[in-house]
């Protein structure tokens, strides 16, 4: 039936060919790893002091409140300092600086046989190893599995952000761990059914996934359209199950995990190692030789870009993530974290906005089903009641409204402002 | 190295408002060229006048916008490039007959651009379609000022209006159609009328191009022409006339032109799909209401102005979070469409034929053509 809302999504030029068929660049372990002790506004307890000796996989800090999130050493060596540095949020944050001794000594680490372990043991293991969602949000993975209401597990290999191929690379080149991880998480979720969702245009990945899960009755590889934001939970759940939900996908019996998260979980179970290195896509028009790069957590972005031939322009937009949701960084000394999946370098966009045409394209495309143009107008009028009525806080800042706006208005950023206004008002 | 900070996203679709206006300009130019070719066949003085009309209209619009920018101390060139001052005059020229006086065209443009667009704050801020405002001025103030040396035959709309918009028998209706070259000719557009409104085929092709290029929203013309067709189909059947009556009602009087080029103006449209559909359905009802019951042959232009008033109301109605409203909105939209068709049918029951006299057409030709 024709939608009265609109497509709520859009095909974007993926630019995936820049990196998808290239060899992986393996960076030598970073000389000085910088681990940002930052997760939103949460309080992080630092568990090491300058001078301490650490091995790969040693616990160095933790968040222990509503969520439990551990931080681990990605290299072996000596803690040099705990100091303020600029983090991926562009703001100063405490960083643990570890000087690498180059020996790659590994800590005594617990492993888990997922075939024998119970649901609870798997969930506890994910929690202990600090496996976080590698799709970008960095939400602790164990948390979602703490439920007995799950009917469907969705493994998200969609990767709908342009330029990024690291997730597909990880899944495509480690099918064994992917399969092991899918089975482990299927058990942890308690679901009867598992969908592995992949874009229909990712032929190479499909060629790996189809035979990998061919004989499995409860696991099905699902091809989804090449549109943005197909990899967002709501869009993907609606595409596969045809249901919408209020806050969390578990309301409709669904848990989603990203493919890299699955692979990382499997590796942790087999080797005991937490996420200490990541495949990061370094791509964009303003980087000379785009590649996927394997780097330790805590490696400065500059080293990743230099491994790809450096910048091809003097003025660039350096983005942590893809071009739709990635935030622009103010310098390249900033280190990557365990949830980093891409660095995108683009020429700065200098086009000027003109008057709103009221065309309604932002309304038709908003994947949350909001009315961005109305939110922007309510913000201009400082009309808080209307901002609430328009469900402003349901915006996920996917960027599609700004992308689609023919008048080049920064719609998404205006909605961000509206959300900030609302949270200020809520505090009062 | 300089790392430029800007808020996400850092990605844009290629379609810009500038491009949208370029495509629209192309489509309008094609329709204008058709009008010029048809005028040229009437005589070279018609062709010359057609060109002068366009120059006068575009010229006066650019002068108004530039003057406004000057008095508001804005960069004139930048303002003109971002406000697309040539679109409104192009539409106005296409909506008037070839024998409209130059000063009437220029005055309509000035009024349309200044009072329809600039006083509201310029491009993007206007409530009414500026071209419709301008056209309404020509209609109400300059109707009698046709150029006598450029005579035109009466338009089918005017003739149908003088016949009471309905015919006592299908024989009489067919006689009327044949006087204008048959129904096929209404589609092709080889009859006298407004410069750019006669060829439904050409306008629909241009509309398809604009939909394909994502310049206009297909829901608006489809709903408008669809409701008009289905409504007048009921009217036609109730008066013993066949499907050709509904086709005639859709193809004549600038309904196709208005549906494709004017109702679709995004600035004066509601900004949701549901809103656009309701808006277009109401426009169809008003078009028929004005045609049947008001003292004017032309319903399209005034119906557009009237539904423009309703746009903010429609937008307020469909305000909120669209996914939460989807089911309710679907009922509302279906209800409005059905009610619109029913209303048109009821209007149609109330009218009766005053008789078709081909002499009326001849008489009007002598007068210089009241035809609008």
General description of the model:
The complex is a heterodimer of chains A (428) and B (372). Chain A has 428 residues and is α/β, with parallel strands linked by helices. Chain A has helices spanning 119-128, 141-145, 166-173, 175-189, 203-212, 233-241, 259-271, 301-307, 361-365, 372-380, 384-389, 400-404, 411-427, and strands at 25-26, 32-36, 44-46, 53-54, 59-64, 68-72, 77-86, 92-100, 152-157, 193-199, 219-224, 254-258, 277-283, 291-296, 315-320, 327-328, 342-346. Chain B folds into two domains: 17-141, no CATH class; 156-367, no CATH class. In chain B, α1 runs antiparallel to α10, α11 (219-238) crosses α12 and α14 (273-293) runs antiparallel to α15 (300-317). The relative contact order of chain B is 0.12. Chains A and B meet through β15, β16, α9, α12 and α13 of A and β1, α1, α14 and α16 of B. β15 (315-320) of chain A pairs parallel with β1 (2-3) of chain B.
């Amino acid at each position: 039936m024709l939608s009265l809302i609109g497509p709520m999504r859009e095909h974007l030029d993926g630019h995936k060919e820049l990196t998808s068929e290239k060899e992986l660049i393996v960076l030598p372990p970073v000389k000085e790893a910088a681990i940002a002790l930052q997760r939103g506004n949460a309080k992080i307890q630092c568990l090491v002091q300058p001078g301490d000796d650490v091995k790969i996989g040693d616990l160095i800090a933790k968040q222990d409140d509503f969520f439990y999130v551990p931080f681990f050493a990605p290299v072996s060596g000596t803690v040099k300092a705990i100091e303020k540095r600029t983090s991926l949020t562009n703001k100063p944050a405490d960083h643990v600086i570890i000087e690498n001794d180059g020996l790659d000594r590994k800590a005594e680490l617990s492993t888990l046989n997922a075939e024998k372990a119970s649901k609870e043991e798997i969930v506890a293991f994910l929690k202990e190893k600090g496996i976080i969602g590698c799709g970008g949000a960095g939400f602790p993975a164990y948390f979602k599995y703490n439920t007995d209401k799950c009917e469907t597990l969705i493994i998200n290999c969609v990767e709908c952000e342009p330029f990024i191929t690291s997730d597909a690379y990880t899944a495509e080149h480690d099918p064994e761990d992917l399969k092991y991880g899918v089975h482990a998480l299927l058990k942890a979720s308690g679901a009867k059914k598992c969908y592995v969702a992949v874009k229909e245009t990712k032929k190479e990945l499909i060629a790996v996934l189809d035979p990998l899960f061919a004989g499995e009755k409860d696991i099905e590889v699902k091809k989804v359209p090449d549109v943005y934001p197909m990899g967002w939970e709501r869009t993907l759940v609606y595409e596969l199950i045809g249901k919408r939900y209020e806050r969390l996908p578990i309301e409709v019996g669904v848990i989603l995990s990203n493919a890299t998260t699955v692979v990382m979980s499997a590796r942790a179970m087999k080797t005991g190692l937490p996420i200490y290195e990541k495949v990061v896509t370094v791509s964009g028009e303003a980087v000379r030789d785009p590649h996927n790069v394997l780097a330790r957590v805590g490696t400065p972005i500059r080293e990743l870009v230099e491994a790809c031939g450096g910048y091809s322009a003097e003025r660039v937009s350096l983005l942590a993530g893809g071009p739709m949701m990635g935030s622009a960084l103010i310098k390249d000394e900033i280190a990557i974290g365990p949830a980093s999946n891409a660095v995108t370098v683009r020429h700065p966009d200098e086009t000027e906005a003109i008057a709103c045409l009221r065309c309604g394209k932002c309304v038709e495309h908003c994947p949350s089903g909001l009315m961005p143009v109305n939110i922007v107008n309510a913000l201009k009028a400082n009309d808080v009641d209307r901002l609430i009525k328009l469900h402003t806080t349901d915006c996920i800042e996917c960027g599609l409204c700004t992308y689609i706006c023919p008048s080049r208005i920064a719609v998404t950023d205006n909605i961000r402002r509206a959300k900030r206004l609302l949270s200020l008002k809520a505090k009062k | 190295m300089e790392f430029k900070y800007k808020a996400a996203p850092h990605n844009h679709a290629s379609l810009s408002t500038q491009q949208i206006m370029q495509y629209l300009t192309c489509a309008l130019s094609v329709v204008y060229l058709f009008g010029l070719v048809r005028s040229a066949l009437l005589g070279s003085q018609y062709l010359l006048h057609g060109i002068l009309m366009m120059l006068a209209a575009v010229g006066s619009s650019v002068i108004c916008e530039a003057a406004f920018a000057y008095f508001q101390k804005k960069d004139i060139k930048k303002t003109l490039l971002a406000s697309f001052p040539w679109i409104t005059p192009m539409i106005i020229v296409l909506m008037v007959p070839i024998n409209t006086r130059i000063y009437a065209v220029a005055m309509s443009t000035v009024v349309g651009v200044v009072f329809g667009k600039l006083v509201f704050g310029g491009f993007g801020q206007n409530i009414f379609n500026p071209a419709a405002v301008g056209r309404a001025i020509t209609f109400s103030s300059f109707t009698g000022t046709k150029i006598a040396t450029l005579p035109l035959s009466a338009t089918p709309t005017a003739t149908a209006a003088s016949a009471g918009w309905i015919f006592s028998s299908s024989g009489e209706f067919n006689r009327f159609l044949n006087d204008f070259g048959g129904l096929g000719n209404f589609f092709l557009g080889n009859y006298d009328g407004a410069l750019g409104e006669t060829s439904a085929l050409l306008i629909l092709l241009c509309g398809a191009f604009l939909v394909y290029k994502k310049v206009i929203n297909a829901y608006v013309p489809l709903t408008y022409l669809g409701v008009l067709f289905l409504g007048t189909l009921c009217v036609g059947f109730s008066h013993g006339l066949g499907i050709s009556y509904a086709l005639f009602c859709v193809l004549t009087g600038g309904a196709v032109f208005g549906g494709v080029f004017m109702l679709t103006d995004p600035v004066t449209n509601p900004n949701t799909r549901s809103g656009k559909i309701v808006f277009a359905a109401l426009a169809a009802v008003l078009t028929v209401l004005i045609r049947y019951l008001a003292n004017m042959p032309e319903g399209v232009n005034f119906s557009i102005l009237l539904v423009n008033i309703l746009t903010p109301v429609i937008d307020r109605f469909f305000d909120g979070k669209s996914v939460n409203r989807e089911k309710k909105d679907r009922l509302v939209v279906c209800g409005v469409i059905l009610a619109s068709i029913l209303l048109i049918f009821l209007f149609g029951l109330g009218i009766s034929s005053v008789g078709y006299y081909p002499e009326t057409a001849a008489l009007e030709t002598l007068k210089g053509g009241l035809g609008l």
